[in-house]
Design goal:
7-stranded mixed sheet, 8 helices, alpha+beta, Metallo-beta-lactamase, Chain A, 18 strands, globular
Amino acid sequence: MHLGDWQFDGLNGGTFLIDGGVMFGVVPRTLWSGVAAPDDLNRVRCVNQCVLARNGRQTVLVDTGYGGKYGSLDRKFYAMEQGEPLLDSLAALGVGPEDIDLVVLSHLHFDHAGGCTRYDRQRRLVTTFPRAQHFVGRREWEDATSGSAELQSAYCSDNLHPLEASGRLALLDDNAEILPGLRASLTGGHTRGHLALRFESAGQAALFISDFCPTTAHVRRMWCTAYDTYPVETRRRKPQILGEAADRNWWVLWYHDPRVAASRLRRDARREFLVVDPQTRL
């Protein structure tokens, strides 16, 4: 997909299966199963569509999937792919880890930040992208490193410590310009520091919305994940953010949707928003 100076490529950050009740929260199974058919264990399929964005000057990676550090039990529980699917996906485009200039993370849950770090041949934890500056929301970093008992299960220290030790970590506040044509805005909701990223060029824009609205099935106000730390904030802000995308005819880049990689949105009196111009790949 091209948008002005930006070229977008969708990357496989690893597919997985997750309980449908977790993915759709308070929405009854009789409703969500109509849009995401569960398996015999009540699990639905999700993708991690990371985004490689290039403008001829900078090579930007948005989110990193779950990486390759997880053991056999975790992989079996989530039906994770073997190896490091993100690096395989980059290699298919002729891009190596050392070619990435910037890594921008919407938030620090395992399926978004796990691929930032890996084990080297001596089983030492290192950053996966050795030259890249890593951008994280300031509030997100504060919560992830706070040691709060209620947040410990949400954040894995193996995904965090190498970033801090690398000296290439930058913390973002709301409405921060990362570089010309790329801006981060605080959504909250899913986590206190969750970010959306907006790419702009030639009068066009694309919004990477991540887990604030993880799939096209979640565009309704009440359709939120059970992982949302502040679900009321998600429900309050989602119509505002999606409404702006619809009114301005922005592309929306979807992270977890197994069928739609990008689309536009249109307001609808009955359904709140309709997905239009769906694209199966970037």
